[in-house]
Amino acid sequence: MIKKTFYNLPEEKRQRIMDAVLKEFSSSSAEKISINRIIRTANISRGSFYQYFDDKVDLVEVLANSFISISSERVNKILSESNGDIFTTYQRLFEVITDFKNNEKQNIVMKNLIKNIKNNDDLISDYLTNRFRGSSGATNILKTFNTENLKYTSDYDVECLSQILTQVLKNAIFNVFVMGIPCEKVEADYCRKLEIIKTGAIKE
Questions:
Q1: Global confidence as pTM
Q2: Euclidean distance between the first and final Cα of the chain, in Å?
Q3: CA-CA distance, 162 to 160, in Å (whole number)?
Q4: Angstrom distance (rounded) from CA 149 to CA 86
Q5: Which residues contact 146 (CB under 8 A, 6 or more apart)?
Q6: Which residues of the chain fall short of a pLDDT of 50?
Q7: Which pLDDT score is estimated for 46?
Q8: What's the CA gap between 70 and 74, in Å, rounded?
Q9: How far apart are CA 121 and CA 137, in angstroms?
Q10: Where are the alpha helices (H) located in 43-154, listed in sequence order?
C-alpha cells in the first residue's frame, strides 16, 4: 500500500520520484522493474523508498493513479454528457486511453503495463485483483451508471456487465498499444462488439 508519507512529501520531491518510476516503467517490462534504479534516479535512499512504498505493486498503483488522475476530468465529463450510459462511457473510454499513445513516454508505459496485464503478470494482476477492484474510484464509477435502460439492474448485474465490457476494452487497447494495429481499425471492431453486447445475439 502506498503510504501517507509519500503523499505528504513536498511536491518537487514527490514529482521526482514519480518521474523515476515513470522512467523505469518506460524502459523495462513490469516483471523486470528495478527498485535500485528508481532509487538512484530519484536520488533517495532505500530506507526512504520503503517509507513511501511497501513493494513493486505500489509502483503499479501510483502509476495507475497518475493515469486515472490525468483522465478523471474527461471521464467525469463523459459520464455527465452520456447521462451515465454505460455503453457510451465505454465507447468514449477507448478514446481517452488511446490518447496516451500521443505521448511517447506514456505510450511506452501503457504498452508495458497492458502487455503484462494481458500476460497475467503477477505484479500487475495483484494490483488489479486485490487493490483496484476494491478502490473507491472503481466503486464510484459503477454507482454512476444509469440503469434505467438496462434489462438487468442489480448492483451485481451491472458489475458483471462492466467486467465484460472492461475485458473487451482491454483487448482493444492491447491491440492498439502492444500489437500496433491502427487505432481506427481497432475502434471500429471495438464499437461493433459493444453494439453486439448492447443489442444481444438472440432474436426477440
A1: 0.73
A2: 49
A3: 5
A4: 10
A5: 83, 84, 85, 86
A6: 120, 128-129, 133-134, 136
A7: 94
A8: 8
A9: 23
A10: 46-52, 56-81, 86-98, 104-118, 122-127, 136-144
The one-letter amino acid at 94: F
| Beta carbons of 165 and 145 less than 8 angstroms apart | no
> What is the predicted pLDDT for the residue at 149?
87
> What cell does 104 get?
511517447
pLDDT tens figures, 105-155: 888 888 877 776 555 455 555 554 455 544 545 555 667 888 888 998 898
- The answer to whether 145 and 158 are in contact (CB under 8 A) is yes
The continuous run of DSSP H or E covering 167 comes out as: helix 155-177
Residue 2 sits at φ, ψ, to 5 deg, of -65, 130
Q: What are 114's three cell numbers?
A: 497492458
Mark 57-83 as b/e (b = at least 16 C-beta within 10 Å). bbbbbbbbbebeeebeeebeebbeebe
